[in-house]
Specification:
- This protein has about 475 residues and is an alpha/beta fold.
- It contains 17 helices and 20 strands.
- It has 2 domains: about 270 residues, Glycogen Phosphorylase B (Rossmann fold); about 190 residues, Rossmann fold, CATH 3.40.50.
- The chain has a 9-stranded mixed beta sheet, sandwiched between helices. Strands 17-16-15-18-19-20 form a 6-stranded parallel beta sheet, with helices on both faces. A 3-stranded antiparallel beta sheet has the order 10-12-11.
- Strand 1, helix 1 and strand 2 form a beta-alpha-beta unit.
- The structure holds adenosine-5'-diphosphate and alpha-D-glucopyranose.
Length: about 475
C-alpha cells in the first residue's frame, strides 16, 4: 500500500511536540512492514535536508487576490520512506512553526491552506497514494478538499483519507472572511460542515469529511466524545463514532533507549542499572545542582508549558512540596505563567530546584535518563510520549489518570509488586501531593523501587503493534472505497 502522511512537524526536520515524534517514526514502521510511505511537511527556516533537490519546480495555488507558486523539495529518506517538503519561503521561512512569543502568526489559515492544496497537486506528479493520512488541523484541509472541490478529479478517485487527532485543544479557528481568500466555497460554512460558533473550524472539516478518524489512545477516543474533553466537537465525534478508532502512540527505541542514547552520560539497562547514577550526576550538574546530595530522589519534568499539562496543580502545592526532601529538574517552555512559576520555585530553592526555560532535545534525553521520577499531572493527555520514554529509562512516571497516561501506566501495588508508576484521578493539588508522597516513600525502599523501575523498563511500546493497527485502518478505508466504486 502507498500511504502519504501530511503533517506540520516531523522528526528530525521540525518539532514542537509529540506529533513530530509520531510522524518521524510511524512511516518507518510501516515501511518495515513492506508499505510505501511519502511524508509531506512544510520546509521551515530550521529544516535541514540532506541531499536536497527540487522534485517539482512549481505548484500553482490560487488565492483570491493572486496565484502563489511553491516548490517541492526532497532529500535522503529511508528505504520505503520518501520525504517531500513544501517550499514557500513567504509562509514558512520564519523562526517559529506556528507563531512567536506574542502569539500565533496571523496568516496561519493561509499558510496551512496553501500547504494542503500544494500536497494534493504535488501528489498528482509524485504519486497519488492509496490513503492520505493527515494529522491535526494543519493538514485538515486535505480531506475537506478531496471530498468537495476535488471530488471530480479522476486522479483521486481511489484515494482514501485517514485523519489522526493528536490534540482536540488545537482546532484551527478562523473568521468566516477567510473562506473566499482561501478559495473555499461558502457552502462549507454550515453547522454540518466547518462552521463552529460563527468561525471556520479546520479540524471540524476533517472530522466531517475523512473516511476514518483515529486518535492516539483508546481512552482519549472515548473522552473526546464527552463535553469535558471534546472542546465543543463531541457531537461531531459521537456521530462519527463508528469510524473512530483509538491507536496508542509507539516509541522509536532507536532514539529513546538508555542502552544506546547518544545524549546521556552513561549507558545502562534493566540488567545493569549502574550507569543511571552517572546520568543522575550529569543531570544535576546540567541544572546547576552539582552540589546536591545524589541520594535524594530527583523528579524530572520535560514539557510544553500549556494549560493541558496540569502544572497549575504544582502551583497549588508548591509550599508543601518545598518541605520535601527531593530535587526537581524542569525543562520546558511555552506559557509565561508556568515559566515564571517554575523560575520562582528555582529562585526560592536554588539548592534543590533547577529550571531551564528552553527547548533542548539533548537535555530532554538527560532528564529522562538522570531523573528518578517523571512528572506528568496532565489535565488531559491524548497519548503522551514522555511517560513511555520514562518507562524505558527506569524513570518512574507519576501521572494523572487521563487519556494515554491512563492507558499506559499501571499503579504500583506493594502486595503483588506489580505496576509501573503512580497515578491519581482527581484533578487537584491534594491528589497529586498524595501520589508524590507515595513515590517518595517507596523510593526509600530501594529493593521495591528497583523492581518498579524494571517493571517499566520491560514494557514494549514499540511501533510494531500500533503500526499494524494503522494498517488495519488503511485497509478498511481501501475496502470502503472499492465497495463505493462497485455500487
Ligand atoms: P505533547 O505532544 O503534548 O507535547 P508528548 O508527551 O506526546 O506531549 O511529546 C512531547 C515530546 O516533546 C517529547 O518527545 C518530549 O521530549 C519533547 N519535548 C517537550 N518539551 C520539550 C523541551 N522543552 N525540550 C525538548 N524536548 C521537549
Ligand atoms: C499531542 C498530545 C500528546 C500526544 C502527541 C502525539 O501533542 O498532546 O498527548 O502524545 O500529540 O500524538
Amino acid at each position: 500500500m502507498h500511504i502519504a502522511f501530511v503533517a506540520s512537524e516531523c522528526v528530525p526536520f521540525s518539532k514542537t511536540g509529540g506529533l513530530a515524534d509520531v510522524v518521524g517514526a510511524l512511516p518507518r514502521a510501516l515501511a518495515a512492514a513492506g508499505h510505501e510511505v511519502s511524508v509531506y511537511i512544510p520546509h521551515y527556516r530550521h529544516t535541514r535536508i540532506s541531499e536536497e533537490r527540487t522534485v517539482v519546480q512549481s505548484i500553482t495555488v490560487p488565492f483570491d487576490d493572486r496565484y502563489r507558486f511553491c516548490s517541492i523539495l526532497t532529500g535522503a529518506g529511508y528505504p520505503g520512506v520518501r520525504f517531500f517538503f513544501v517550499d514557500y519561503p513567504a509562509f514558512f521561512d520564519r523562526d517559529g512553526l506556528y507563531g512567536t512569543a506574542s502569539g500565533d502568526f496571523p496568516d496561519n489559515a493561509e499558510r496551512f491552506a496553501l500547504f494542503g492544496r500544494a500536497v494534493l497537486e504535488a501528489s498528482k506528479v509524485l504519486g497519488v497514494p492509496d490513503v492520505f493520512h493527515c494529522h491535526d488541523w494543519q493538514a485538515a484541509l486535505v480531506p475537506v478538499l478531496l471530498r468537495t472541490q476535488y471530488s471530480e478529479d479522476p486522479a483521486f478517485r481511489d484515494a482514501g483519507t485517514v485523519f489522526t487527532i493528536h490534540n482536540m485543544g488545537y482546532q484551527g479557528l478562523f473568521p468566516p472572511e477567510i473562506l473566499p481568500l482561501l478559495m473555499l466555497p461558502w457552502d462549507l460554512f454550515t453547522i454540518a460542515k466547518m462552521e463552529y460558533f460563527g468561525n471556520v473550524n479546520f479540524l471540524k472539516g476533517a472530522l466531517v469529511y475523512s473516511d476514518m478518524i483515529t486518535t492516539v489512545s483508546r481512552k482519549y477516543s472515548q473522552e473526546i466524545q464527552t463535553t469535558e474533553f471534546g472542546f465543543g466537537l463531541e457531537g461531531v465525534l459521537k456521530d462519527r463514532a463508528p469510524n473512530l478508532a483509538g491507536i496508542l502512540n509507539g516509541v522509536d527505541y532507536d532514539e529513546w533507549n538508555p542502552q544506546t542514547d547518544k545524549f546521556i552520560a552513561a549507558h545502562y539497562s534493566a540488567e545493569d542499572l549502574s550507569g543511571k547514577r552517572e546520568c543522575k550526576q550529569d543531570l544535576l550538574a546540567s541544572f546547576g545542582l552539582g552540589e546536591a546530595d545524589p541520594n535524594l530522589p530527583v523528579i524530572g519534568v520535560v514539557s510544553r508549558f500549556a494549560a493541558q499539562k496540569g502544572f497549575d496543580l504544582i502551583g497549588q502545592i508548591i509550599d508543601r512540596l518545598a518541605l520535601e526532601e527531593v530535587l526537581i529538574t524542569v525543562l520546558g517552555s511555552g506559557d509565561k505563567l508556568y515559566e515564571e512559576m517554575f523560575l520562582r520555585l528555582a529562585r526560592r530553592l536554588p539548592e534543590r530546584v533547577g529550571v531551564r526555560v528552553a527547548y533542548d532535545n539533548a537535555l530532554a534525553h538527560k532528564v529522562e535518563a538522570g531523573a528518578d521520577m517523571f512528572l506528568m499531572p496532565s489535565r488531559y493527555e491524548p497519548s503522551g510520549l514522555s511517560q513511555l520514554y520514562s518507562l524505558k529509562y527506569g524513570t518512574v512516571p507519576i501521572v494523572r489518570a487521563t487519556g494515554g497516561l491512563d492507558d499506559t501506566i499501571d499503579p504500583w501495588e506493594a502486595r503483588t509488586k506489580k505496576g509501573t508508576g503512580f497515578k491519581f484521578q482527581e484533578y487537584s493539588g491534594e491528589a497529586l501531593l498524595r501520589v508524590i508522597h507515595q513515590a517518595l516513600q517507596l523510593y526509600r525502599d530501594q529493593e521495591s523501587w528497583q523492581r518498579l523501575m524494571r517493571n517499566g523498563m520491560s514494557k514494549d511500546f514499540s511501533w510494531r503493534v500500533s503500526g499494524r493497527e494503522y494498517v488495519r485502518v488503511y485497509e478498511r478505508v481501501r475496502q470502503q472505497h472499492a465497495q463505493a466504486i462497485l455500487v
